Amino acid sequence: MDWGTELWDQYDIIEKHTQSGLELVEKYVKFAKERTEIEQNYAKQLRNLSKKYNQKRSSKDEPECRLSSYQAFLDILTEMNDYAGQRELIAENLMMNICIDLTKYLQDFKQERKTYLMDAKKAQQSLESTYKQLDSSKKRFEREWREAERAAQYAEKTDQDINATKADVEKAKQQAHMRAHVADECKNDYAAQLQKYNKEQNQFYFSDMPLIFNKLQDLDERRIQKLAQGYVLFSDTEKHVMPIIGKCLEGITKAGTNVNEKNDSMIVIEQNKSGFERPGDLEFEDYSQGINRASSDSSLGTPKVSVDPWKKKTNNFWLFSKRSKLSSPVLAPFSTPPAPSPNGPPSPKFGRDPLSYCLKEINKTVKPRISSFRTLRRSKFTPERIMPTVTEDFAHLPPEQRRKRLQQKLDEICKELQKEVDQSEALGKMKDVYEKNPQMGDPASLASQINQTSQNIERLRGEQSKYETWLAEAGGRGDTLRYKAHSFNNNGANDVHSPDGAYSDESTPDPSQAIYAEFDDDFEDEDLAAPIGKCTAMYNFPGASEGTIAMQEGEVLAVVEEDKGDGWTRVRRNNGDEGYIPTSYVTITLNK
């Protein structure tokens, strides 16, 4: 069934229907454009959102950068950015495959429809023109036939009139004959026009218009087919990117599953582990009783604790920034108190001035105080609640963190130094080429660059040597601290080589420093401490730094002292040699 056969008389309906179809295409193109704008805005907002929460850090050393939860969040932002890219791709494909393509076809459809309608109008005008000619010839034939009838009647009347002359009769007959001849010609012309009109009308209704209607039908069907393809593309455009979007969503899921809370906790420990020991118990300071420790070995009683309003204030060790409203005890100058004496608790005076008290007690008995000095050697000072001064050697950091930062800085310097050395070699080769082939360039033009590179190499080598020295000090500070003379100020806070690895140039020498050196021999003469376990070396260690001991892979050593958090373990050989080794170089088995 086609329009030419079934709708031969519905020209207006066909014209209206085809116009409505084209308007539907325009409406769908407008709809697709608005959808494209929505996708573009959505993608833009997603990108802005990802950019907002993925701002570049000023430093790559941010502590949270290594946390799996932080990395997972960065992965989510990356996947969201990729997801936004897919939304942009959807918008681009919608614009190219639907909006632009359908707009182009729409213009072609409009032009083709306009051509068909003009052909129909021409055929209609041609048929109307033929009909007008037919109507004109018909009216002329009617008029001439009536005139011929009147002329024939007049001739017959004249012929019967006895008063009419022969000439009048002859004239009337000739006039009637002429009119009859004209009427016959008009009749023949009318018949010819009628035949022509019927032929054209038959052509119009059975050939021309059905052909035009069929072409319009084909046009409308192609328009519908193209519109249907646009409908399908509307869905397929998004389906084509769904696998990639699915991968983005899978990446987000994977980022969530990759979060390892235990590993994050270990990273926090690794990044913030100071290596300090916990502060010990405070000494009881009894101001109500004057006890002479030399004359009495009995333990102290338990007097009532009273607050001395004239007591000198000392720095407190606060774990949190906000202090509790409850009064907290005042810490002693050392976070780790001296070991208790076999004769009872130490004198309260020791908590106020440990150095002077130790020097005074040395004259009475030395051996009972050796363990206290050993504890003193390992003691850590109570950090003050002020911001430390940032130094080039990272002395403001705890020992463990300082060693890591020094190693990181040394690696950066080595990379930069290697880069400068490579550049220097390249400039040297270029200079040789210029000297052998002067037409390629002037060797003198490279002098400034070579000089600058040499200066950079010397500067970097100096920095490398400096940081290597600092790193060696930080890595081998076990025995180094043992033989370093300490000087205490009134607050007991700073010494020549502080426990966190920082050197203090402002510390004032104390004449009593020599006494520490005198008792170093006593420390060496002590009975060797019993091993607490054994360890097996996994790698060779040269032991070049002071206080360290060399070991060979597979060698078994006795563990004398565990790792205190600074990455070093104290060991002993069978021949009595002691020293520190990296904890990560050995496998340790402690005695149960």
Strand order of the largest sheet: 4-3-2-1-5
Strand percentage: under 5%
Structural classification = mainly alpha
CATH topology of the domain at 3-264: Substrate Binding Domain Of Dnak, Chain:A, Domain 2
| CATH-defined architecture of the domain at 3-264 | Up-down Bundle
CATH class of the domain at 3-264: Mainly Alpha
> N- to C-terminal separation?
100 Å
Tell me the helix content.
55-70%
Low-confidence stretches: 291-387, 476-526
Number of helices: 12
The H-and-E topology, N to C, reads as: HHHHHHHHHHHHEEEEE
Gyration radius, in Å: 56 Å
CATH superfamily of the domain at 3-264: Arfaptin homology (AH) domain/BAR domain
Please specify the SSE layout and strand pairing.
Blueprint: H1 3-6, H2 11-53, H3 68-160, H4 166-257, H5 261-272, H6 348-352, H7 354-362, H8 370-378, H9 399-436, H10 447-475, H11 477-483, H12 513-525, E1 533-537, E2 556-561, E3 568-572, E4 578-582, E5 586-590
Antiparallel strand pairs: 1-2, 1-5, 2-3, 3-4
Description:
It is a single chain. With 592 residues, the protein is mainly alpha-helical. Among the domains are: 3-264, Substrate Binding Domain Of Dnak, Chain:A, Domain 2 (Up-down Bundle), CATH 1.20.1270; 399-474; 533-590, SH3 type barrels (Roll), CATH 2.30.30.40. It has helices at 3-6, 11-53, 68-160, 166-257, 261-272, 348-352, 354-362, 370-378, 399-436, 447-475, 477-483, 513-525, and strands at residues 533-537, 556-561, 568-572, 578-582, 586-590. It has a 5-stranded antiparallel β-sheet with strand order 4-3-2-1-5, with no helix packed on it. The longest helix is centred in the first third of the chain and has 93 residues, at 68-160. Mean pLDDT is 76; it is low at 291-387 and 476-526. This is Thyroid hormone receptor interactor 10b.
